[in-house]
Amino acid sequence: MPNVLLQDLNAVIHGTSRHGLPYDIAHVTILLQTDSQIPPELEWAIPHVEDIPPKALNLIKDGKTPIYPMLKSKLREGLSDFFTNVDSNNMEGTLEDIEQALLLTSMHVTTIEPLENNDCRYVISYKYRLYPVEQNIFDFKVLLPFDGLGMINGSKLQVTLVSPIGSAIDPVITDAKDFNGQSVANEQIAPIALVGKQIVSFEIHQDPIFTIRYHY
After folding, report:
1. According to the model, what pLDDT value does residue 143 have?
2. Where are the domains of the chain?
3. 79-95, pLDDT tens digit by residue?
4. How far apart are CA 175 and CA 184, in angstroms?
5. Which DSSP string do the residues of 67-135 spell out, in sequence order?
């Protein structure tokens, strides 16, 4: 398994919900450095803003579905209990499986190609629709490092997000937590002078799920 030396995520959120659309748009770019080349058999499902059909949107536009790059094989494994859930009338589990299947089919499934001058450095870019979890409240989520990549001593994860014009980042909800729900990083929030935006950044050496909440 390749290990992450550096994964530097930069996200810019555009406040399209302030201009008549029911969602904002998140633009994400990631610089990734690993200690060995990522094997071509590892494929990720990468979000893409134009490819989510209306029927799928009805399930994910509650804003609570995390949308970020996921290992294709892991998404497929999550669907293995679909018929068990159907046969046992497990409505919640069935809907979760349908949601995962729709996400998988609407994302771009791809390998990650290295930069042309270095086999262990990569740049990944994607954009997607960010729906509110409540009126005027949005959660940006991402899991780092990507599924299928490991962490070693000295690995560094960085997240920087620029919020939309006229929004404020919620310091209570915004956090990086491990899979046990424990906070593993402290964020820094600062205003960007003159343009009515805020910026939040994390630097961490563990593998958390990042949640960044902002509101209008």
Report:
1. 86
2. 3-215
3. 777 778 788 888 887 77
4. 8
5. -S-EEHHHHHHTTTTHHHHHHTT-HHHHHHHHHHHHHHHHSEEE--PBPTT-TTEEEEEEEEEE--SBT
